[in-house]
Write a structure and sequence with these properties.
Elements (H helix, E strand, L loop, with lengths): L4 H29 L2 E5 L2 E5 L3 H27 L1
Antiparallel strand pairs: 1-2
Organism: Streptomyces decoyicus
Protein name: Secreted protein
Keywords: Membrane, Transmembrane, Transmembrane helix
């Protein structure tokens, strides 16, 4: 039995890059939907994220869902 180390290295590299990318996108989505505390005087108020942040979060979550759907497609199609 012979192991193709170059192919194994390619699989490892692509897997690492895609995993970090999807986790990064999911993190952008979480940050885009989070509420940030703002201090006004002595009270702390929660600020609602703006429409741009919410749209970016929805786009990030949609890209994550598309990547997961593509992965499932690759597994099922084989």
């Amino acid at each position: 039995m012979s192991i193709d180390w170059a192919a194994l290295g390619q699989v490892f590299g692509v897997t690492l890059v895609v995993t970090v990318g999807i986790v990064g996108l999911f993190t952008v989505g979480i940050v885009g939907t989070s509420r940030k505390p703002q201090q006004e005087g002595g009270a702390v108020a929660l600020a609602v994220p703006g429409t741009g942040a919410r749209a970016g979060a929805v786009a990030a979550f949609a890209l994550c869902a598309a990547a997961v759907a593509y992965g499932i497609f690759l597994i099922v199609a084989a």
